[in-house]
Amino acid sequence: MEGDCHVLIDFRVDRPIFLQLAEAIEDDVLDGRYAEDGQIVSTTDLAVTLRINPATANKAISCLVDEGVIYKRRGVGMFMAQGARDRILKKRRERFRKDFVDPMLHEAAKLGIAEEDVIAMIKERGRVT
Amino acid sequence: MTTIAVKNLSKRFGAIRAVDDVSLTLEPGKIYGLLGRNGAGKTTLLNLMTKKLFPDCGEVTVDGRNIALHDAVLSQVYHMTDKNYFPSGLQVRTLFRWCPTFYPQFDLTYAESLAAKFALAQHSIPKQLSTGYSTILRAIMALASNAPVVLFDEPVLGLDAVHRDLLYRELIANYSQKPKTIVISTHLIDEVAEVLEDVIVLREGRIALQQPVEDLLEGVYAVAGATDKVNAFIAERTDIGSETLGGTTSAMVMSRLTSADRQAGEQLNLEFSRVTLQRVFIALTNQQGVLP
Lengths: 129, 292
Description:
The structure holds two protein chains of two kinds.
Chain A: H1 17-30, E1 39-40, H2 43-50, H3 54-66, E2 70-73, E3 77-80, H4 84-111, H5 115-125
Helix pairs in contact in A: 1-3, 2-3
Chain B: E1 4-13, E2 16-26, E3 31-36, H1 42-49, E4 57-62, E5 65-66, E6 77-80, H2 92-102, H3 108-117, H4 131-145, E7 149-153, H5 161-177, E8 181-185, H6 189-192, E9 198-203, E10 206-212, H7 213-218, E11 221-226, H8 227-234, E12 239-245, E13 248-253, H9 259-267, E14 271-273, H10 277-285
Parallel strand pairs in B: 3-8, 3-9, 6-7, 7-8
Antiparallel strand pairs in B: 1-2, 1-4, 4-5, 9-10, 11-13, 11-14, 12-13
Helix pairs in contact in B: 3-4
């Protein structure tokens, strides 16, 4: 599996491409597609496969390097850092309310769905695994 | 790495100012999009940059050397023209073999492998090719030229979706392996937007805008909601194009979306979104468009 390109994204207009790419790679890490110290696809492969400017792919990678998710080894490639998954989980959990709960409540308010009905729906749906 | 610069370049055809006092510098190692409506001057500019036309005034330099005085520097700049100007009667394979004479870094093996990928028969005669294959031939020669500056005029004209996809990928792979300056002049903005680093917009022979794509898109936003509320919101902002449908209006504002903007908008029940490069282009270049 190492070095395979899992990241196939349909880019949306709502956010910069480099952020969407960085998140897609993070998603792959969360899904357990990369082992710690496992090799990540090269920026060239990312750029060619996703048909994006290599500078954009580099920008996404730089973000992930800054966040300690991946590290580079000169002339060898890029690898998943130790503890990367935990760092991503922490960051995503902090953003969960803003990214998911707030928009849901906003939509519920627009549709006139009461707070307790939203809670009931969540309970009824149960946990998605 | 090679820098190509254009200084105060102008070219008139009769009463029409096809290129009107254009100055720009193409930094090495970037992919530029050259965008403009039909007749905006894109092809004329590219022809002037490669001495296929002579300017009325102004100059073009390659690494500081004026192309009008130094023919040799033209081998550093490959121009994929919008038409076939190849000698008639030559087969594709013969044409490929002539290329190194003019572009010493031309990679024949690569050209042949690209021809195979696009299923371009090397025994075919360029003049007899379909529109799509004529474009493919010219694009292959541009990619294989290995010139430090490659100018593509309509590189996907007449290509089907599969070939367009293949061409963009080959272009990115080529650029990744051998970084160079690339200019892509095209009307298919949405599909090339993510390939571009910088964008140059021409309007009536002049540069309307030159910016990194990401900065441009960060500096524009759409705002939608009830027409009177949107009108109130854009009254003190730079609206570059709005559309109304029923009681709803969507406007495009040419500035960075601040948290103050967002708050003001939310009080009016407005929704914000980013816009595509193509939408910004349409807003900036249609007749009613207001230039920032």
